[in-house]
Amino acid sequence: MKNFPFGSTGSPKSFQAYPRGADFDLESGISRRARKHKNSHFHPIKMLKSFGTRIQYYYKLHPILFFIISLSFGITILIVLSLFESHYRMISNYRTLDVGSDNYPFPKLHNLVMVAGHSIYTSSSCGKADEEDSWFLESYQKNPGQAATFVRHIQQGVETAAKDDAALLLFSGGETRKDAGPRSEAQSYWNVAESRGWFGKEENVRWRTLTEEHARDSFENLLFSVCRFRELTGTYPYNITVVSYDFKEERFAHLHRSAIGFPESRFFYLGTPASPTSKEAALKGEALVRAQFQGDPYGCKGALYRKKQQRDPFHRSIPYPTGCPEIEDLFRYCGAAPYPGSLPWPSKAS
To answer: What PANTHER family does its record include (predicted)?
Structure first.
């Protein structure tokens, strides 16, 4: 018997007991091909059907709980969509603010100085602005020295604007007195400033002084002037300065400013005193009006609303907020809580 060295070229070929690449059935002695694994495919229709089946199961198992969860989910979706729509609309409006500045007469002015009107000048002579009988006065305004307080407001507004080359001066006030005729408080103040030669500031201030002729109360003096500023400049004011009586500072600088969400650090108030003979009555009246605005910050109901209706004897159509679409919802808002929507200025200074 020959011995063959292990690994030599003459060694016999190795014997494979079972064929390679196949499954071998020992009982039948037949080779079978290996099974191919099926590739997992994504079947969205089957998944949806399965998901629907599960929903039906849970609905039958816990119908009340399922209804509550579905309702909560639906409300959440509506809130998200509403916020998205509001944000998208605000962004779209922002894009139009600085576009086409040539369409605005005062695109380079950035600050607002607003003088709130309190009466209508009725004299045919513009040289009698210091006389009470030259103005249409309500019974509570018929006090010596009252007319002079109006002139001081006008002068204060002109001098304040003269110190700021980026300021737009607005006299604000509508046609509020039927017996005074279709003449506005704002135009009255502009005419008095004209008759006084703009207190020596004509060349500097006259060209950038205009009117807002629809406001019927102090809140509208502020809100409408902000909108008017947008109409004239294409943007909203960076700083706001209000000129009125000193006893109205709390009303303007806190209540009205907070109602429109304007930052306190960019809001300024310049108050002048009432006439000595009317001060006591003015303080009592202001306390009453301030309390009304505390309960109705937007003057949209009750006594404040009725007063506005009375101060529109000629039923003038108010054009706002056509010229300031970014705050359209603010104009329509009526509530005791602050306006919750988006505004084109930060509520706090950045």
So the answer is: TRANSMEMBRANE PROTEIN
